[in-house]
Amino acid sequence: MLNNTQKRNGKFDMFAAKATRAAGSTGAFVTAFFIVIIWGVTGPLFRYSETWQLVINTGTTIITFLMVFLIQKSQNKDSLAIQLKLNELVAAHEFASNRLVNVENMTEEELLVIQKYYAKLSEFSKQEESLQQSHSIDEAKDLYNIKKEMEKDLEQKFLKK
Q1: What whole-number distance in Å separates Cα of residue 30 and Cα of residue 145?
Q2: What pLDDT does 129 receive?
Q3: What pTM was computed for the model?
C-alpha cells in the first residue's frame, strides 16, 4: 500500500513528465515565440519603459528557474531507467564483465581505472582477426596470453627443425 509521500511523489512524477513533454513541444515553442513577438511589438506602446522590460525579464527568469528543476527531475528518472536497463543487460550476458553492474555509483577514480581496462581491451582486440572474439577484459587478456604462448611454441618447433 502506498503512503501519502509515495502518492505525492508519483503525482509529481506524472506532472513533471507531462510538463517536460509539453515544454519541449512545437506548441510550447510557438507560444513562447509569439509572446516575445507581442512583447516586442508593444514596446512603442509602453515607450520601452523599465516596467515593459521588467515584465519579460521577470517572466523568463521565473519560467527558467522552475523549468531547470522540472527538467532535472525528468532527466534523473530517465537516467535511472536507462542505468537499470543497462545493468540488466550486463548482468544477463554471460560474457559481460559484472564489474560494470551499478557502475553509475562508482567514484570518478574507479571509473578511470575501468576506462584503462577498456583501453587495454581495445589494444587486445586490434590484434585479433575478428573484433567479436574478445568479450571481456579478463577473457581478452587470457586469450591474448594463450595465443602468444602458442606462437612461441610454434616458433620453437619450427626453429628446431
Answers
A1: 61
A2: 65
A3: 0.59
